[in-house]
Amino acid sequence: MKELYLAAGCFWSAEKYFSLVPGVAATTVGYANGKTINPSYEDVKYRNTGHVEAVHITYDSEQISLVFLLDLFYKCINPTSKNKQGGDEGTQYRTGIYYTDRADKEIIEGSVILLGESYEEAIQIEVLPLEHFYPAEEYHQKYLDKNPEGYCHISANMFEEAKNAVDKITRNQDHKELREKLNQIQYAVTQNGATEPPFQNEYHNHFEEGIYVDITSGEPLFISTDKFESGCGWPSFSKPIEKNIVKELEDLSYGRERVEVRTVGSDSHLGHVFEDGPAELGGLRYCINSAALKFIPKAKMKEHGYECFLPLLDNV
């Protein structure tokens, strides 16, 4: 775990903003680098103590990098505004980055210099080692969680930009993990919508009792009692275990009109659904890539946490 202290104007808004970031383990608001010991909010606001409203961020550097945290910080401030953010004005609302690890100094300074290349005006972000930090009064901690309609100078657009940035890095991390977990065809099918060869796949003629789950996430998808031989060369099912665990999307690729099937949870591509299935089974054929599935035999379903689906097999 590492720590960083950021001043982004009103600490209510900044604390909420950074608390939403995956990899941030804890946030505390308080007063940094002033001239007095253990100041109160009134001291900082009215008595010229020199403190800045800041957020102490504790984060997991294996989940999120210092550079990424700084990028999020820049998105929620006006970096050329001196002693003013949003409707708040005064030295206590100056922007700043305060570090405790000397090794972070070069990264932070380089990041601020790079930021300055995007602005004609001078960057007003203070970069200093942390001298001291006093936690603010309890009513300031997690203020916007306690008061959802409270004042927040960070706009909804800024929160959305940060969310998009976090989503992007999360997706990149997830894809890296999937590349390590899946083989080439499994990754191509689930992440890039590829189709494996017919008849040359693991489950096209497999009819053992058990459950088929998402190869990427383990979500339960299909039960063996709904599997049938269609002759198409891929596993075919009359229906998913539950309708809401998959989503169906229009697919106009290759000049054809088809309905794509994807998982709701992991958004993995599974295959397609057609209306040429056996009438006695409902008339649908879920044509699914083996590479998108993992089979758990009936004897191991309890061991793997799928015990609640055993009655679907016992009722046959």
Question: Layout of SSEs?
Answer:
Layout: E1 2-8, H1 11-19, E2 24-32, H2 41-46, E3 52-59, H3 66-75, E4 84-85, E5 88-89, E6 95-99, H4 103-116, E7 126-129, E8 133-135, H5 143-146, H6 156-181, H7 184-192, E9 210-214, E10 220-223, E11 227-228, E12 236-237, E13 246-251, E14 258-263, E15 269-274, E16 285-288, E17 293-297, H8 310-314
Parallel strand pairs: 6-7
Antiparallel strand pairs: 1-3, 1-6, 2-3, 2-8, 4-5, 9-10, 9-17, 11-12, 12-16, 13-14, 14-15, 15-16
Overview of the molecule:
This protein is an alpha+beta fold and 316 residues long. The chain folds into two domains: 2-157, Peptide Methionine Sulfoxide Reductase, Chain A (2-Layer Sandwich), CATH 3.30.1060; 189-314, Beta Complex (Metal Binding Protein, Guanine Nucleotide Exchange Factor, Chain A). Helices cover 26% and strands 25% of the residues. The protein contains eight helices and 17 strands. The chain has helices at residues 11-19, 41-46, 66-75, 103-116, 143-146, 156-181, 184-192, 310-314, and strands spanning 2-8, 24-32, 52-59, 84-85, 88-89, 95-99, 126-129, 133-135, 210-214, 220-223, 227-228, 236-237, 246-251, 258-263, 269-274, 285-288, 293-297. A six-stranded mixed beta sheet has the order 7-6-1-3-2-8, covered by helices on one side. Strands 11-12-16-15-14-13 form a six-stranded antiparallel beta sheet. Strand 4 (84-85) and strand 5 (88-89) form a beta hairpin. Helix 3 (66-75) packs parallel to helix 4. The longest helix is centred in the middle third of the chain and has 26 residues, at 156-181. The radius of gyration is 27 Å and the shape is elongated. The two termini are 52 Å apart.
